[in-house]
Amino acid sequence: xxxxxxxxxxxxxxxxxxxxxxxxxxxxxxxxxxxxxxxxxxxxxxxxxxxxxxxxxxxxxxxxxxxxxxxxxxxxxxxxxxxxxxxxxxxxxxxxxxxxxxxxxxxxxxxxxxxxxxxxxx
Length: 122
What we know:
The protein contains 2 helices and 4 strands; from the N terminus they run ααββββ. By secondary structure, the protein is α+β, with helices and mostly antiparallel strands. Strands 1, 2, 3 and 4 form a 4-stranded antiparallel sheet that branches. A hairpin with a 2-residue loop joins strand 3 and strand 4 (108-117). The longest helix has 24 residues, at 12-35.
């Protein structure tokens, strides 16, 4: 069976870039997690993510990928993964929010997601 995937062995310098990209992404995701609260919209989350990406000099990996319109995916409760942020979707106490974020740093990609509860979860 032929393998069409070309995965190259990374150099020491490339591994350093990937490690740093992961650290930047971790900072962004931790900031997003700490900022989540009832009353904010999922679009507010995207605005914050955009600001954090700009401050950290990285590019949103998702925006524009196959037409995806946002820089992060925000899914609330039973919503399927890869939700598109909206000014009309307001977080409520008891909601479960999943945020997926990808960045490009020095031509390398880092991608991670987390799920968090808003307020008290029953």
